[in-house]
Amino acid sequence: MPSPATLSDQGSKALNSQNYAQAIDLYTQALRQTPESPDYYLKRSTAYQRSSNYASALRDAELAVVLANKRGKRELIGAAQLRRGISLLMEGKLGDAGFCFSEAEKKASNDKDKNLIGIWKGKLEMQLAKVDEDDITREVTVKEIPDVEIPKVTGEKKDGQTGLSEKTVAQAVTPPISRPKGVVTPPSKIRHEWYQTSTHIVITIYVKGVPKDEATVEIQNTSLSIAFPLASGPEFTFDLDPLLYPIKADKSSYAILPTKIEIKLEKQIPGQKWGDLEASEATQLIGTIPLPTTSATPTSMAKVDLPLYPTSSKSGPKDWDKVAKDLTRSKKNKDIIEGGAIDTDEGTEYDSEAESGDPVNHFFKKLYKDADEDTRRAMMKSYVESNGTALSTNWKEVGKAPVETSPPEGMVAHKWNS
């Protein structure tokens, strides 16, 4: 078998080449021959950390701290504490990481080491700025020298080299990969935020230490479901079903990070404005009606003499100014009749609905008759575009975009056949 020095040299080359699995194997072989080498534990800890095996990285770093203190080498102790702090930071244990960085700083004897520690302390400060002052991750639960068992030499090999029994090697040299116990953030502290762009909805759930292998994230075109275990036992769930509007599930993504979960949902209709993440009962009734992909803006309306607006009508876009003028012409005809300019029976026919027809319909006609131009346009646009389910007198609001259909409770709106 190659000597520990040769194995370590090969391990360093594998580490620099980002071949972390090979580096771990080579350092493990070296440790079987030299089980009390803090330097080999430090290097293997680095390989574990870069391959995202933070539990094993921490185990090796703690063994390095104990062995370095046993040898009394100041510089080696500082390097081991720094590596220990990095592993703790990766696990989301911010208070413990800060404690180890401070211990490493005490042992730093040159500018290079001090600068490296400063970089990691800066990363820690960025994480601390994102959590509350009473967050559990700020607590310090570690001490200067961890309570870990140092691997012991059990006998002499035939070639004169010391080594460990196979059982001891399995227990002490290869750090056990601990199964995640769940997040450390209390359920009451877990929170989420969201924002939107013209093409995406981005949701961030702030929670520490979510185990990737035990978390489930299901993204569907109309729903989102996230679940992960808590340290206290029960499972935490975050469900949006149904979403306010459909999304493109196949083009959406998520990432589970040490301090949060980020979800990026691609909108099915670019430019669509979301007022919330989850649909209410009212929006669920019209969830099958796709929103128009174009809409007029107040600016464009001001520049066009005869504005046309999106509509679901079979006859196509409406010239609302023309509609308003036509109805105003009817009002003027009524005034002429009542004034006696035309002596016909049309006046009686005009008022017949008010006398013997639907009084509610007559009320809205009278409301329209007495309104100004903008109010009339708002009433006509909202009534026609909503398929008779909505009536608004606010042109500033109605003129901005198409009016959605709002069917009565228990009814479902369907798209017009084209």
Automatic annotation (TrEMBL):
Lineage, top-rank taxon, reads: Eukaryota
* Residue stretches of each TPR repeat: 4-37
**Disordered: region residues:** 395-418
Q: Where is the SGS domain?
A: 308-418
The GO terms describing molecular function are: protein-folding chaperone binding
Annotated Gene Ontology cellular component terms:
cytoplasm
Q: Where is the CS domain?
A: 187-278
What keywords were assigned to this record?
TPR repeat
Q: Specify the species.
A: Morchella conica CCBAS932
Per the record's keyword annotation, is Translocase included, yes or no? Answer: no
Q: A single Pfam family, by name?
A: SGS
- Indicate the family of this protein: Belongs to the SGT1 family.
Taxonomic lineage from the root: Eukaryota, Fungi, Dikarya, Ascomycota, Pezizomycotina
Instruction: Report the protein name in the record.
Output: SGS-domain-containing protein
